[in-house]
């Protein structure tokens, strides 16, 4: 049975739909109201508060902490300054991605590391011979994502912290409602936003302050359904949906290198040895077999399919995590893994992993679409990601 997060007492009271999902053993709200429209609009037009406490969180300290982090991840942590956050992935010895997450450098040899899957055993295995302490703090630290255009002004009004000058992928420290917090300029929505890291036992005080004072900034609690649409618009991948962890893969095609899932820029082959380096260096010479692409689905063709059977086109209201084949010239060249109607862009979009030589921007592919239990294909153009990329996403939030 799942258990509640540190915010469950508040989220449960607000969840009118009783629509919950299980996330890493926790109850997490799918949608608070009967439809996610208001929650999605809060992410894009005001402020949304999302409970992300189920993330696995680790604290890495000790004399060799930096050396350890560099041994595991494919990026170079020595280039990262204190109070900076990076997004990274880590691979197995064959150069296939195990997981992705963020690392916050809190001190010279002090890091907070987030992961989607339990990672303690893998970290400990790679810490052999090093003076490093790896602590699972998942149940000690709760986390909230505050995302949306008014999130900066809301935080500035209530946080005793330097939020006004906080740059993208940086972290600051302070207090909210008297509770010590870390506030990072990060998120999973592709919008202006923050993540707030708070002691588990004091979490409700922070939630209450944000919700009570946030009313004038039109803050809304938001669930996973709205978040899923936003992260696809932002071109952000999700483990076990857009790729399979190499630890859970059953066949070779389920294993992905960073370059095959759009994370090639997170690999630094110039740094000292790290797990999977040799395999990734070999791949770099010949090129990855597959690539992650954005697809823009031809809505005129979708309308025509429905029109042919006398129906109005059906816009899917939620994102699909069901993989469907992608074709070129009648041959399967990959699969679309996350598909959604974008309310902001008024387009149907998808993230897909396709054969590299079929993934050039501008290429026309076809994606499978089922209408009234009959399978068809419609055109889908390869476009750059992110699909939605507003300047406010990376701007300094407030003056």
Structure description:
- Helix 2 (37-45) crosses helix 7 (224-233).
- The mean pLDDT is 97.
- The protein starts with 7 loop residues before the first helix and ends in a 16-residue tail after the last strand.
- It has a seven-stranded mixed beta sheet. The chain has a six-stranded antiparallel barrel with strand order 15-18-17-16-19-20. It has a five-stranded antiparallel beta sheet with strand order 5-6-7-4-8.
- With 399 residues, it is α+β, with helices and mostly antiparallel strands.
- The chain is globular.
- The protein has nine helices and 20 strands.
- The protein has helices at 8-14, 37-45, 65-72, 120-125, 151-158, 203-213, 224-233, 277-286, 299-308, and strands spanning 19-23, 26-31, 47-51, 56-61, 84-91, 97-107, 110-115, 133-136, 141-147, 159-160, 171-176, 179-184, 193-199, 219-221, 290-297, 324-328, 331-342, 347-355, 364-371, 374-383.
- A hairpin with an 8-residue loop joins strand 12 (179-184) and strand 13.
- Helix content is 20%, strand content 34%.
- 44% of the residues are buried.
Kindly provide the radius of gyration, computed on alpha-carbon positions and rounded to a whole number of angstroms.
21 Å
Based on Cα principal axes, name the global outline. globular
Give the oligomer, counting copies of the same chain as homo and different chains as hetero: single chain
Number of strands: 20
- Measure the end-to-end span: 46 Å
What class do helices, strands and sheet pairing give?
alpha+beta
Widest sheet: strand order?
10-11-12-13-9-3-14
Largest sheet: 7 strands, mixed
Q: Which regions have little confidence, pLDDT < 50, spanning 5+ residues?
A: none
Q: Helical percent range? A: 10-25%
Q: Helix and strand succession?
A: HEEHEEHEEEHEEHEEEEHEHHEHEEEEE
Number of helices: 9
Amount of beta strand: 25-35%
Mean pLDDT rating: 97
